[in-house]
Write a structure and sequence with these properties.
74% helix, mainly alpha, 164 residues
Length: 164
């Protein structure tokens, strides 16, 4: 897969967008006590605060790929839970027309339409969607079967690469 090269202006716009999305995501985690974990060697509040500093540093250094991956990593639990409250929070805080749930569904459809999982992120997305669909009523067995085939094919290709 060829990597898309953005113009300077387009990259600046994307950097601004992902910085705002990440800061809003981290604020959401800080504002919600259910996301707070404190142990003898870990404090999630401090962790989120430190991540905000790192977001700023990566933004200044123009590390768009890293910011995108962090956003994906930090929001996966909200996407998997189909948390529309979080999505609404992002819209209000960033004043953008983002829909992470719809974006996730579009990603899933693109993978299915291509007929092949090409990387670990896609594998994780499809696997998460299968888990979600298995818990919905009515169960869409046909869609689950298609996705399970994609998952199995990807795992076989990875095993074959490792055994070479």
């Amino acid at each position: 897969m060829k990597k898309e090269v953005l113009s300077k202006e387009a990259k600046a716009i994307e950097l601004d967008k992902y910085k705002a999305l990440l800061i809003a995501t981290l604020d959401y985690c800080l504002e919600n006590p259910s996301f707070h974990i404190v142990t003898s060697d870990f404090d999630s509040r401090q962790y989120y605060i430190n991540l905000k500093v790192q977001v700023e540093e990566n933004y200044v250094k123009g590390r768009l790929t890293r910011l995108k991956q962090w956003f994906r990593d930090l929001t996966e639990r909200f996407v998997e839970a189909r948390d529309s409250e979080f999505n609404d929070y992002l819209k209000v805080r960033t004043k953008s027309d983002i829909n992470i749930l719809n974006a996730y569904d579009i990603r899933i459809d693109k993978i299915i339409d291509s007929g092949k999982i090409t990387n670990d992120n896609q594998f994780y997305d499809i696997n998460s969607m299968v888990d979600y669909l298995c818990q919905t009523t009515p169960v869409n067995e046909e869609r689950i079967a298609v996705m399970n085939t994609l998952l199995t094919d990807y795992e076989k290709r990875k095993m074959n690469k490792r055994s070479r």
